[in-house]
Write a structure and sequence with these properties.
This protein is α/β, with parallel strands linked by helices. It is built from 14 helices and 9 strands. Strands 1, 2, 3, 4, 5, 6, 7, 8 and 9 form a 9-stranded mixed sheet that branches. Helix 2 links the parallel strand 1 (about 35-40) and strand 2 (about 60-65).
Length: about 350
């Protein structure tokens, strides 16, 4: 199903994306001192990373923005003439899809192998996780006890009938979570969980994760599925209303089979036809440095991914949780099954 959707998407993007704006300039195939970055991450923090990499290396970063499927379709259309050096996405499933499409090449880097834990990267080096985010629960402390949301099973239990807010099934974060549950539990139990989630919805899915958190604060629902960094941004941002909201709404880190919370990654890989391959590897290695990891954590509220790099404030206030050790490569392999289960259950 995913491959058919990807092929259909490719037909829509035969021409270069018109919506890339200032990030649509790419260098020629033989340009020295450049890096052509195809990125599905759209965070202000990343601009700091690009500037620092340019300052430290003298390599100019040319950025092309889009969602993962747009960028994958573009790279497929460009073929061997693609100027892409690095593909970056905010989900392990998207990285896996690029790999499955034959758009990434394996990289042997002692720096990356030492820095990035094995469960956060492709075993053959096609891509590497470079920042972590947990998919967990925001809950109303006035109506929910922490022990009521300390496992993923409880999210789909009758206790929360009509009391759950969640975004749509086409959210790659939800697809990866359900993929992880299939990997851990098998399709039968995971399907039961998905049906329980649909039964528990307080409203049809709408908006992003911050909308779900705010809906909990507004009393629309008692619990919501969210990525950790959205909540941390609200709690540590400049908006007084958002900070006040997080005094009442808190985060719970449910455990999957007693082994920890589901964790996804943002990451990147070297494009198959990268004209500036050395710069591409250099860029990924830069993202794994303590300095770059600290920028991602501080400015984007994600958890660090590199070994031995502690989370700085304010992220450190939430970083004491146990992360499930599942390999993130499972999320992509299971996404087609996840989508099938969610569609069958009426999760739209």
């Amino acid at each position: 199903m995913f491959r058919r959707a990807l092929m259909a998407t490719a037909l829509l993007f035969v021409l270069p994306l018109a919506a890339c704006g200032q990030g649509d300039a790419v260098g020629s195939a033989d340009a020295a001192g450049e890096l052509n970055l195809y990125t599905a991450r759209h965070y202000d923090a990343d601009q700091q990373l690009y500037r620092l990499f340019e300052e430290q290396t003298g390599v100019k970063v040319n950025r092309v923005d889009g969602n993962p499927d747009q960028l994958i379709a573009r790279m497929r259309t460009e073929g061997a003439n693609s100027p892409a050096d690095v593909f970056v996405a905010a989900d392990a499933g998207a990285l896996w899809r690029a790999q499955e499409a034959g758009l990434l090449q394996p990289v042997s880097s002692e720096v990356l192998t030492a820095a990035i834990p094995a469960n956060l990267r492709d075993p053959e080096g096609h891509w590497f996780g470079l920042a972590r985010r947990a998919r967990i629960v925001a809950y109303d402390t006035a109506r929910v006890r922490p022990e009521e949301v300390d496992t993923y099973e409880e999210i789909a239990s009758p206790r929360f009938r009509g009391k759950l807010c969640v975004r749509s099934s086409d959210s790659v974060y939800n697809l990866s979570l359900v993929g992880a549950l299939i990997e851990a539990w098998g399709p039968e139990k995971a399907g039961e969980w998905v049906r329980g989630v649909v039964a528990n919805m307080a409203r049809p899915p709408e908006g992003g994760d911050r909308d779900q958190i705010r809906a909990v604060g507004a009393g629309v629902c008692e619990i919501a599925l969210t990525n950790s960094y959205y909540f941390i941004r609200l709690a540590s941002g400049e908006d007084a209303g958002d900070r006040a909201l997080t005094e009442r709404v808190k985060l719970a880190f449910p455990s999957l089979d007693g082994r920890g919370a589901h964790v996804n990654v943002s990451g990147g890989g070297v494009a198959r036809h990268a004209p500036n391959r050395d710069n591409a590897v250099r860029f990924l290695e830069f993202l794994a440095t303590p300095e770059a990891q600290a920028i991602v954590a501080t400015a984007n509220s994600e958890f660090t991914a590199a070994n031995g790099v502690a989370d700085p404030a304010p992220v450190s206030a939430w970083s004491g949780f146990t992360a499930h050790p599942m390999s993130v490569t499972a999320y992509g392999r299971r996404q087609a099954e996840a989508q099938s289960l969610m569609t069958a259950a009426g999760w739209r």
